UniProtKB/TrEMBL annotation, chain A:
Record-given protein name: Large ribosomal subunit protein uL15m
GO MF term set: structural constituent of ribosome
Phosphoprotein found in the keyword field: no
GO biological-process terms attached to the record: translation
Lineage of the organism: Eukaryota, Metazoa, Ecdysozoa, Arthropoda, Crustacea
Superkingdom of origin: Eukaryota
Region (Disordered): 30-62
Automatic annotation (TrEMBL), chain B:
Entry GO MF terms: peptidyl-tRNA hydrolase activity; translation release factor activity, codon nonspecific
Region ranges (Disordered): 185-208
Name of the protein this chain belongs to: Large ribosomal subunit protein mL62
A Pfam match: RF-1
Length: 300, 208
């Protein structure tokens, strides 16, 4: 509009006119600089065609390659080391770090374990003398029979495995032993309860043992937590006869009896805390779910 | 109360939370009480009394049969040092287990078994009449005691078994008699045949 009449328009004026006339900038009316991006060249035509990167003659061009791992005749790497049957399933096998009866007696004598309360995995981990790593397939502790003859403690203990003579030693002194299973998430919660509570996760429900462990934990001979207590009583009597001691009557000590008989439910992880509860250590509060579905889930 | 509930709702959609105060002095209703899931023992074993403290009555050895029960108050257990190599450990630790009892007055063993046992182990009975069983099989006192009692129990049981006369039916006795006679017949038949063979090998004489 500048320059009325026959006067020739200047460069800027023409540019501004253009701007006014031309359509808006959009993806359809711009393009990149040449060689800004590489076009995907399929093996068709000009630069992807002809030999398609397969070279000249030979097995390569004829696509007749040797099998993967073949080393042109010499013993290939993947066959050099033979397979051994002894390690089959080693990565699935459950491990139980040992605690000897001698160690247990020492802990009781030095006061590191409170015998007036039931001893479970959490109590043993709280001594900070035993570490458990669920990530390395460790599923709990086993009791070994070192120090069998000198064990004198009267305890209510829950471990994951104990041989017959250890069970005998504990029951001979008027104690109670149970073997129980904990799955990996439960173990992670149990070995460091403070850290678990600080994470703000509700207490999970303990899972049932895997198929190959069900027989062990339902057997009264092993004092399994899923075994019938009446059959456990019979096995206690039989073991006393086998190992030559008079089976102590637990009912003779009424003050200690409730502690001795204290047991967790198969779905419970901590004594006195139910699955589904949320513990707030900072405010010293416990929250429990109200929703019927959730309650049903945690109870099932 | 409402403030906390709103806060809870804002955190998660469906998780309804209720505040429960922990008191250090009082026990809240759900605290320390038994949590019962659907897999609790009373649901797994509804007919069980769920009592591990019951001590069953010891089985009696009656009618001349040994029940297998050894009363621990009627026998004496001694621990002594074992023999063999082992250095300081074997010299100091008493792992050999000895179980002794007066055999004649052991009425927990039925009379006929006791008599036969006395005869069988007469070399292991002391002058005063005490029968002694020993074991130093393992390195542990308790395991050796178990082994000793195992030995004793097996001994009494084998003596009891030897006293048992099995009741044989008349048909079995009849069959056994027939079989014995048949065996004798067969044996004589073979013997005669063999005799003929041997005779046939001899050169004939004018008489035969």
């Amino acid at each position: 509009m500048a320059g009325v009449g026959n006067r020739v328009l200047a460069g800027t004026d023409r540019a501004l006119d253009l701007l006014r006339e031309l359509p808006r900038l959009s993806l359809s009316n711009i393009r990149s600089n040449p060689k800004a991006f590489k076009r995907n060249k399929r093996g068709r035509g000009q630069h992807g065609g002809k030999k398609h990167g397969a070279g000249n003659k030979g097995s390569g061009q004829r696509q007749n390659f040797m099998r993967l791992g073949y080393e042109t005749g010499n013993n290939p790497f993947y066959l050099r080391v033979p397979k051994e049957p002894y390690y089959k399933g080693h990565h699935i096998r459950r491990e139980y770090p040992p605690i000897s009866l001698m160690q247990l007696q020492t802990l009781i004598d030095t006061g590191r374990l409170d015998t007036s309360k039931p001893i479970d995995l959490t109590a043993l981990c709280n001594t900070k003398l035993f570490q458990l790593s669920p990530f390395e397939n460790q599923y709990g502790f086993q009791l070994t029979d070192e120090g069998l003859d000198n064990f004198k403690g009267r305890i209510n203990i829950e471990v994951q495995y104990a041989p017959e003579q250890v069970i005998a030693a504990i029951e001979k002194n008027g104690g109670v032993i149970t073997t129980a299973f904990y799955d990996a998430p439960s173990l992670i919660a149990m070995r460091d309860p403070m850290k678990f509570f600080a994470s703000g996760t509700p207490i999970p429900k303990r899972q049932m043992p895997p198929e190959n462990a069900v027989e062990y934990y339902t057997d009264p001979k092993n004092r399994g937590y899923l075994a019938d207590p009446d059959l456990v009583a019979l096995e206690r009597f039989k073991l006393a006869q086998k190992y030559g001691y008079e089976l102590p009557d637990l009912k003779k000590d009424p003050e200690l009896l409730p502690m001795m008989l204290e047991r967790k439910d198969p779905r419970q992880i901590f004594f006195g805390l139910n699955p589904g509860w949320l513990v707030n250590l900072k405010d010293k509060k416990i929250f429990e779910p109200e929703d019927e579905q959730l309650l049903e889930y945690y109870r099932s | 109360m409402n403030q906390y509930e709103n806060m809870a709702v804002s955190f998660s959609n469906f998780f309804c939370l209720r505040r429960l105060l922990i008191s250090s002095t009082s026990c809240s209703r759900a605290y320390l009480s038994g949590f019962k899931s659907n897999l609790s023992l009373d649901k797994l074993y509804p007919t069980s009394r769920l009592d591990i403290t019951t001590i069953p009555k010891a089985p009696e050895s009656k009618d001349g049969k040994f029940s297998g029960y050894i009363p621990m108050d009627r026998i004496q257990v001694n621990y002594v040092r074992s023999g063999g190599p082992g250095g300081q450990n074997v010299n100091c630790v008493s792992t050999k287990t000895e179980v002794r009892f007066h055999l004649a007055s052991a009425d927990w063993i039925p009379e006929p078994i006791r008599v036969k046992l006395a005869e069988r182990v007469k070399n292991q009975i002391s002058k005063e009449g005490y029968f002694i069983v020993k074991s130093e099989r393992t390195r542990s006192q308790q395991l050796n005691l178990a082994d000793t009692l195992d030995k004793l129990r097996n001994l009494i049981h084998s003596v009891a078994q030897s006293l048992v006369v099995p009741e044989v039916s008349e048909e079995t006795l009849e069959r056994q008699r027939r079989l014995r006679e048949r065996a004798a017949r067969e044996r004589l038949k073979e013997k005669r045949a063999h005799s003929m063979t041997k005779q046939g090998r001899q050169s004939p004489t004018l008489d035969s």
